[in-house]
C-alpha cells in the first residue's frame, strides 16, 4: 500500500487541504482528513486527459506509425502528467489511416495511457480545412464507415467531421457504434450546427479554429455551441490559436462543457504534414498555423494566469470535463475512491513535482 499524508488534494471539484490518501493495486482506496496538519503542502491533482494530440518527443505518429513511436509518445506524455490520451490522425490517405490503426490494434494489449484513436478528418469541409490536405478530404459513405469501424475493431474512439456535408445515416451509424463525434473543420451555420448537436454530436473540435465564426448576422458554430444545453467543446489555450480574451469568454459561457486539448504536434520534415517550430509555435511550409507546442500543465497555467479562470475550473478542464465526455469519469479524471491512481503533484508555483500512473511513480528525467 502507498500513502500520501498531509497533502492538499483536488477532489469533487474542490481543493481539500491536509488530506491522507491510500493507494492499493493501482487504485485509490481511501481519502480522509490527515491527522497531522503541520506543513504547507503541495497539491495532488488527477492525471491530465488529452483527447487530441498528434505526437510528442519528436515523434509525429502519422509520419512514423510504429510500436516504437507510440511507446515513445506514451513515455513523454506520462512525464508531462498526461495519463490518458487519444492519439490523433489528421486527414490523410486510407493507406496511412489503416497503417496507424494496425499499429494501435497491435499495441492495444500493451498500451498504458494511450486510449485509442481520434480521427480528425478526412470527412471535413474543405472550406475550413486549416492545415489539412485538401486532396484527401472527402464525403463519407456508409459502406466506408462500416469498413473503417470494422477494421478499427474498437480502437477508433473519436472522430471530427463536418456534419453539413455528411448523410444522416453516416452520423447515426457512428453514434450507434459509440464513436464520440466532434463537429469541426466545418462551415455549418447556426441552424445546421444546432441540428447536429440535437442529433447527438457531443462536442466541438478546437473551438473558434477552422469553423464558421461569430458574426452579428451569422452567429456560426461558436454561438450554436454556446447556446446548446449539452454540447461540449475543446479549446487550445496557447494564446496563438485562440486569444486569451476569447478563451475567457468561452469559459464564462460554457463552464463545465469546455475542456482543454493541446493539439500538440512534433517537428516533421517529411510527408504531407511537415510541422516546423518557429517562435514557440508550429507552422506548415506555407506558413499556416498547425498544431501547438503546449503541454497540458502549460494550458492550465495559461487559463489561470491569462484567462481569469480559477485553478479549480482549469483543472477540471484538463481532467474531469473530458472524462465525462468519454464516459470514464468514474475511472479517470478525478481523485475519488476506486478511481485509477493517476496523480499529478504540483507545487504552489504550478510546477510539476511528481507523476503517478496507476499508483506507480513515473521518472520525470
From TrEMBL:
Cofactor note: Binds 1 divalent metal cation per subunit.
UniProt keyword annotation of Transmembrane present: no
Residues at which Zn(2+) binds: 120, 185, 206
Main EC class the enzyme belongs to: hydrolase
The protein's Enzyme Commission number: 3.5.1.25
Residues covered by the Amidohydrolase-related domain: 44-359
Cofactors (names): a divalent metal cation
Active site: 263
Gene Ontology molecular functions: metal ion binding; N-acetylglucosamine-6-phosphate deacetylase activity
Keyword Glycosyltransferase annotated: no
InterPro entries membership: Amidohydro-rel, GlcNAc_6-P_deAcase, Metal-dep_hydrolase_composite, Metal_Hydrolase
NCBIfam families attached to this UniProt entry: nagA (TIGR00221)
Family, per entry: Belongs to the metallo-dependent hydrolases superfamily. NagA family.
Protein name: N-acetylglucosamine-6-phosphate deacetylase
Species, as recorded: Pedobacter chitinilyticus
GN (gene name): nagA
Amino acid at each position: 500500500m502507498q500513502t500520501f499524508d498531509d497533502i492538499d488534494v483536488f477532489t469533487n471539484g474542490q481543493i481539500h487541504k491536509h488530506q491522507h490518501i491510500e493507494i492499493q493495486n493501482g487504485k485509490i482506496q481511501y481519502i480522509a482528513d490527515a491527522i497531522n496538519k503541520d506543513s504547507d503542502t503541495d497539491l495532488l491533482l488527477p492525471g491530465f486527459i488529452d483527447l487530441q494530440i498528434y505526437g510528442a518527443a519528436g515523434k509525429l505518429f502519422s509520419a512514423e506509425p510504429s510500436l516504437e513511436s507510440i511507446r515513445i509518445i506514451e513515455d513523454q506524455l506520462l512525464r508531462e502528467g498526461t495519463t490518458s490520451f487519444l492519439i490523433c490522425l489528421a486527414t490523410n490517405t486510407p493507406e496511412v489511416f489503416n497503417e496507424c490503426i494496425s499499429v494501435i490494434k497491435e499495441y492495444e494489449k500493451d498500451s498504458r495511457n494511450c486510449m485509442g484513436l481520434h480521427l480528425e478528418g478526412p470527412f471535413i469541409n474543405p472550406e475550413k480545412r486549416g492545415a489539412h490536405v485538401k486532396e484527401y478530404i472527402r464525403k463519407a459513405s456508409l459502406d466506408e464507415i462500416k469498413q473503417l469501424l470494422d477494421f478499427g475493431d474498437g480502437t477508433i474512439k473519436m472522430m471530427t467531421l463536418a456534419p453539413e456535408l455528411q448523410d444522416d445515416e453516416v452520423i447515426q451509424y457512428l453514434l450507434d457504434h459509440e464513436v464520440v463525434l466532434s463537429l469541426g473543420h466545418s462551415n455549418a451555420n447556426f441552424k445546421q450546427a444546432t441540428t447536429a448537436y440535437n442529433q447527438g454530436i457531443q462536442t466541438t473540435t478546437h473551438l473558434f479554429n477552422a469553423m464558421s465564426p461569430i458574426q452579428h448576422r451569422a452567429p456560426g458554430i461558436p454561438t450554436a455551441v454556446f447556446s446548446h444545453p449539452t454540447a461540449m467543446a475543446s479549446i487550445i489555450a496557447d494564446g496563438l490559436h485562440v486569444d486569451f480574451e476569447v478563451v475567457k469568454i468561452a469559459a464564462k459561457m460554457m463552464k463545465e462543457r469546455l475542456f482543454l486539448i493541446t493539439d500538440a504536434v512534433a517537428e516533421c520534415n517529411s510527408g504531407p504534414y511537415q510541422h516546423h517550430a518557429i517562435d514557440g509555435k508550429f507552422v506548415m511550409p506555407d506558413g499556416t498555423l498547425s498544431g501547438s507546442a503546449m503541454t497540458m500543465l502549460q494550458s492550465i497555467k495559461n487559463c489561470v494566469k491569462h484567462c481569469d479562470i480559477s485553478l479549480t475550473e482549469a483543472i477540471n478542464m484538463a481532467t474531469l470535463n473530458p472524462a465525462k465526455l468519454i464516459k470514464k469519469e468514474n475511472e479517470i479524471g478525478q481523485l475519488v475512491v476506486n478511481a485509477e491512481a493517476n496523480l499529478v503533484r504540483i507545487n504552489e508555483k504550478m510546477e510539476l513535482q511528481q507523476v503517478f500512473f496507476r499508483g506507480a511513480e513515473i521518472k520525470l528525467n
